[in-house]
Fold this protein.
Amino acid sequence: MSDDADDIAIERRVADVLAGLGVAHEVVRIDPAFADTAQFCERYGFPMDQSANTIIVASKKEPKQYAACVVKANTRLDVNHAVRKLMGVSRLSFATAEETRALTGMLIGGVTIFALPADLPIYVDDALMACPWVILGGGNRSTKIKAAPDVFTHLPGVQIVPGLATAV
């Protein structure tokens, strides 16, 4: 399948998930060259403290375990303490771009919690819940999703976690 066909398929999956959740949201179309959060915020005028990164983490030992973590763009995911404890593994790292693509079908800069594999744990930093709205990846590098943070509570399997991220 080509990258364009992959993008269209992911966009459909994300749209279907959002429609099924029945939450208000806005799809923001962007230039894929500005999909990475800092460049996106600068180019389109969105604040970093209301932008979220969805980060896939992986255990180092086999069999590999994965989780998706969502944190404010102006914070750092606490991989070595909070996430490691949540996953119950001894060693953990960020998934590579290749692992992320294989697991989610999404490219870095577009990873979203909408349309992830059903068995993938999703951890959301509780600081996001205080935002009036958040901007999330849209599943590809040409869209972002703007929604109220209660969208997280409508997704099955999401765990809101205090202290998932630390200040940068």
